[in-house]
Amino acid sequence: MVSKGYTYTNVADAEAAVQQCDTYYSIPKSPDDVTQHWAGFEYSQNDNIYFILFDESLLPVLGEPIEFDVNLEEEI
């Protein structure tokens, strides 16, 4: 499946991108807030990549997204 977003080769870089978004949008406002993160990442074991799917709100933080292939089907 072709997706649009941001890809990372390791969990630390993906977590750093989420933290950048949280900082930019001041999330969470308090420790008890339901929303703890502005964005979230996923991992594709088949493709060995971490990724954040594109949303317009990520542009000022993460820049222009790329198109990438990702297979979310689990291997059996």
What does this structure look like?
This protein has one domain. 24% of the residues lie in helices and 25% in strands. The protein has 2 helices and 4 strands. It has helices at 11-24, 59-62; strands at 2-8, 42-44, 49-53, 66-69. Strands 2-3-1-4 form a 4-stranded antiparallel beta sheet. The model has no long low-confidence stretch (mean pLDDT 93).
Task: State the main characteristics.
76 residues, alpha+beta, 4-stranded antiparallel β-sheet, 2 helices, 24% helix
Write a short abstract of this structure.
With 76 residues, this protein is α+β, with helices and mostly antiparallel strands.
What secondary-structure arrangement, pairings included, does this model have?
Blueprint: E1 2-8, H1 11-24, E2 42-44, E3 49-53, H2 59-62, E4 66-69
Antiparallel strand pairs: 1-3, 1-4, 2-3
**What is the general shape?**
globular
Structural category: alpha+beta
Order of helices and strands: EHEEHE
- Percent helix: 10-25%
| Count of structural domains | 1
Total of DSSP H or I helical runs spanning 4+ residues = 2
